[in-house]
Amino acid sequence: MKPTLAPADAAAVPRAEPALAGERLSVRVEKLRLEAMVGVYESEHGRTQPIEISLEAEVTSEAMAPSADLDHAVNYAALAETVRQVVAARHHELLEDLVQEVANTLFRDTRITRLKLSVDKLTALDDAASVGVSYERWR
């Protein structure tokens, strides 16, 4: 007979929750590809260019276990749609302006406690895969 770590009647043994020092849950959207009106150069005005936006939104403990209720969860699809709307709303001179406007809009959701964003232009330099900015905000 092989040795086993579980008692013969495992159902009779009460299960204790492990002691935790803390926990975090983040909702992510990676490399959302959009066409954006962004840039300070004359050649960048009046046209769109491809960008990628990634975000990670750390959420409150109340939003960690929404009991399978999407209305109470921080929904990645809703985050992505909000980003799409901010990007499409107007021309942004700098990526720094765009990333801060996205952060301002997403941070209206008080369940988000920390936000990491990156925005990359995909065709700005011929010899680079992308150029961009990263931004982080927390409460």
What does this structure look like?
It is a single chain. The chain is an alpha+beta fold and 139 residues long. It has one domain (25-138): 2-Layer Sandwich (GTP Cyclohydrolase I, domain 2), CATH 3.30.1130. It has two helices and four strands, in the order E-E-H-H-E-E. The chain has helices at 76-89, 95-106; strands spanning 26-36, 49-59, 112-121, 131-138. A four-stranded antiparallel beta sheet has the order 1-2-3-4, covered by helices on one side. The longest helix has 14 residues, at 76-89. It is elongated, with a radius of gyration of 22 Å. 17% of the residues are buried. The model has no long low-confidence stretch (mean pLDDT 90).
Element pattern in H and E: EEHHEE
Largest sheet: 4 strands, antiparallel
| Total strand segments | 4
CATH architecture: 2-Layer Sandwich
Can you identify the CATH superfamily? GTP cyclohydrolase I, C-terminal domain/NADPH-dependent 7-cyano-7-deazaguanine reductase, N-terminal domain
Helix content: 10-25%
- Structural class call reads alpha+beta
Low-confidence stretches: none
CATH class: Alpha Beta
Tally of alpha and pi helices: 2
Termini separation (Å)?
A: 56 Å
What number of structural domains do the residues give?
A: 1
Fraction of residues in β-strands:
25-35%
Strand order of the largest sheet: 1-2-3-4
Look up the CATH topology. Answer: GTP Cyclohydrolase I, domain 2
Can you give the mean pLDDT?
90
Shape: elongated
